Amino acid sequence: MIAELLALTLALAGMNAALSYVLWVSPLPRHWKVHAYHLYSDAVTINILVFSVNLVQILVSSLAKILSVNLTGPMQVPTFSFTVIMVQLGSLLGGIITIMMICASAGLESVGRLLEFAGNIITGSMMFWSTIFLAINLILKFWMLIYVIGIVFYSAPFRLTRKVGSTLMSSSCVLVIGLPLLPDFALLLEWTIGFQPVLENFLSKIQNPDILTFPPAYWHLEISKAIAQILGGLVIALIIFPIVYIWILSRIIRRVSELIGGYSREIDISRWIES
Amino acid sequence: MVLGGLSAQEGDFITNLTREISRITAELALLGFVLAAFAWTICWLIIIVPYTPRRYKEWAYQHRVSIIESTFWFALFNTIISIILWFVSLGG
Where are the domains of chain A? Predict the structure, then answer.
């Protein structure tokens, strides 16, 4: 499939060069001859792109290796991190449903309604993570195909679909590196702002020789604080952070595609998130 | 279409498209060469015919040079691609 698409791209490059030659030798006005320059330079660029497909593969895998130190291996499906995330979100949802049921049986409908909103957010977040997991699977399988389809679009004569092509090319390269790192980054963030400070706090308390003299109210307060901190870390890392991360990735895609040859606003993910 | 692969018809579509584009390219190249030969001859006639105004002769000189230049670049492009494809076919 990829070989067929590359053959099509080479044919399009040849067509660009032939069109450039025809425009150049035809008795046409000067402003038409500008297209001849563009067509010829495009034909050369397309050939460089076709013969650098292997180089792009090597570049992307080595960049992924550099970025994934202490995280999931380069360009792999982060199944473990994903399971940890889903278990956490599922437990949180289960806890909220239990409290809602208790509130409903006690006649506290207003509290139940508040918790229903939180439950909706968590359910949405679980669906979002499932979509991310599916997207990671798909992008790891098809990124090269998307890249080559991008080259085909890029090589249409007169730069008709050049922006769509460069956006597809940059999307495939950036997403294949960035997206598999998202679950690991989210867990790292959760650990750093949620669990780690709580553990450090409790360890410092345990090392105190007067620990047994602390009143029960103090421990009640400390445990409440710890739970709030862990839940806050969970919400920030697993619900807010992924949206910000994908927005950042889309900005990187935009910059890279502008560097390659223009950005297509029709498939702008950052615009969807902002709206 | 099965995810991850193409059916025989879709594979044929891309192959046929490539073949058609190659055919159009070959025809365009031929048209280009004919046009180049025609334009070069016109320029040559303008240059050799006596009493042609000087500005026409200058234009003909410039245009003749540009025709030769563009033919050279087009031939170079095709030669390089042919050599690369020949190497690729040796490997495959």
Answer: 52-274
